[in-house]
Amino acid sequence: MNRSQVTILVIDESVMVRRVPETLLERDGFSVLSAHSVPTAVQTMKAATIDLVLMDVSPSHRSAIVQTTEMRREFPDIKVIAMSGFFGGNPPSPSRLRAHACLSKPIRPEALRYSVHSLLAEHLTPLPGVH
């Protein structure tokens, strides 16, 4: 499958924060949608086929784990990458957040590319420089 056939949904309440992964992923050829909240994202997911979700989680959103669990219950095949500025240099285990991977913000382009490619490897041709 070619990357333009893969749709990634970026969820973060900050437009400026969403733009960083959107730009990086679009440069790699992915189709990217965005939402400012999980409820809005779920509506988007009902209307479009989403292959991977990149979502912000923070202590101020205590229900993020509940929302991730509910989202994955409704869309069991969805891959989820949790991102947060509160992880510091030591992100928690992805399973603790009901995610497939965790990234610290600010997001490093190579970490984002590696995580996305790893989770979608079965659907994609390899990206140059990503192993």
Blueprint (SSEs and pairs):
Layout: E1 7-11, H1 15-27, E2 31-35, H2 38-47, E3 52-56, H3 64-74, E4 79-84, E5 101-104, H4 109-120
Report on this model:
By secondary structure, this protein is an alpha/beta fold. It is about 35% helix and about 20% strand. The chain has 4 helices and 5 strands; from the N terminus they run E-H-E-H-E-H-E-E-H. It has helices spanning about 15-25, 40-45, 65-75, 110-120; strands spanning about 5-10, 30-35, 50-55, 80-85, 100-105. Strands 2-1-3-4-5 form a 5-stranded parallel sheet, sandwiched between helices. Helix 1 links the parallel strand 1 and strand 2. The longest helix is centred in the N-terminal third of the chain and has 13 residues, at about 15-25. It starts with 6 loop residues before the first strand and ends in an 11-residue tail after the last helix. The mean pLDDT is about 85.
Strand content: 15-25%
Provide the gyration radius in Å: 13 Å
Number of strands: 5
First and last CA, distance? 18 Å
Quick one: biggest sheet?
5 strands, parallel
Proportion in helices: 25-40%
Features:
131 residues, alpha/beta, 5 strands, 19% strand
Short description, anyone?
The chain has 131 residues and is an alpha/beta fold.
